[in-house]
Fold this sequence. Notes:
The structure is a single chain. The chain is α+β, with helices and mostly antiparallel strands. The protein is 37% helix and 21% strand. The strands form eight sheets. The protein has a seven-stranded mixed β-sheet, with helices on both faces. The radius of gyration is 22 Å and the shape is globular. The mean pLDDT is 94.
Amino acid sequence: xxxxxxxxxGTTGTRAIVIDAGGRIIGSATHEHVPFASPETGWAEQDPxxxxxxxxxxxxxxxAAAGITGxxxxxxxxxxQMHGSVLLDDRGEVIRPALIWCDQxxxxxxxxxxxxxxxxxxxxxxxxxxxxxxxxPKLLWVREHEPQAWAQVTALLLPKDYVRYRLTGDRxxxxxxxxxxxxxxxxxxxxxxxxxxxxELDAAILPRAYESPEVTGTVSTEGAAATxxxxxxxxxxxxxxxxxxxxxxxxxxxxxxxxxxxxxxxxFAATDRPALDSQGRVHTFCHAVPGRWHIxxxxxxxxxxxxxxxxxxxTGADDGRDPYERLTDEAARVPPxxxxxxxxxxxxxxxxxxxxxxxxxxxxxxxxxxxxxxxIRAILEGVTFSLKDTFSIFASMQVPxxxxxxxxxxxxxxxxxxxxxxVYGHPVEIVEAEEGAAYGAALLAGVGGGVWRTVExxxxxxxxxxxxxxxxxxxxxxxAKQYEAFRAIYPATRSIGRE
Length: 499
């Protein structure tokens, strides 16, 4: 029987899962990373060599948990955090710590890119505006502030692709992950010569970009010795974490949408064309499915809002249950609409739809009659309203929504699942194996390794729906009215606290 391994190089750790040809998870392991460094406010850096060490721990542990050896793995797939900048010298050595996705130091470089290329032309070339999280502004920051380090650069890799490089010796990436660099022609699924010329960058530093199920190389002698995988095992391109996670949930055909609530929240739609929002409110990237794209809206402070409330205000005796379960049980005592209380979840600024790093959270509509439970439910509803903003943009772009699948912590709460169905106005589904990006990476490995013919075939074979929740018509009407009130919060409060 064919076994496959998916490796997800995340922010806090690297996870490896082993699946069989039926899609069943037979082994998994996670090794944590050293927490990212923040030498100055808003900075976020990690040492790529730590990702490799974590991989060398997670892969053997996952194989051991599965009760197999590396000889029994058919193919390897990768996923990982997007937008990071791994800079290598001519010996393949790391020059400086990678600036990762949440690093915010590059506001000046984003202005430089926009001024140089032009805002409209930038979206035309890359389908996205210049945002501080993307890779290109990070390169410009290093070039400007650390010229001695920049002078040594001969190669740029994204986070998961550095681990691939250590495993195989190949400099490669996938079209989905490359889409988040601001150097990629998303519509043409290739590196953008126009962007490279405008930014005076040499194309030689870039890795080759493959479609996600394509084989980029094989496990080297050194990679095999470090991980326990068999030398010569095929390694596929894989995908950035959002695209690979969508594959793991079966979001591979036009009309399929996922709504995932983790620390941040993401609404992800698969499309047959590279749909463009001229205002840049949503990201348009290549999908991990050849010939498809995806559109993605992001809420920065989604699950973070509930965690913030838990950490700052949660009280009461520990009854042995998950603290989030206790909070959502408390919220369930309050009727839909939270008796008028509203939460705008802008604890970390906001991407979709406001593109405003200075946006701030707001709790609106409190009266003396309201309780903790009202605030908790308002948080659950407010986060969902913020994700609803992406659905509203999809409608304006004529992006079809035929079904919605839920992932992340927001999919584990029965109350939050129902709130999402009522707010989105669509039935929502939960899949059996909600294992995130590592699972999608393993499915992509199966396509590259010949277990399945296409990504769609892989998902049809192994992704199964565990539950379906339908909107309640009466509650849906309440939520629609409350959503309109929510949309008034940002313009009404935007100027408060700003000079």
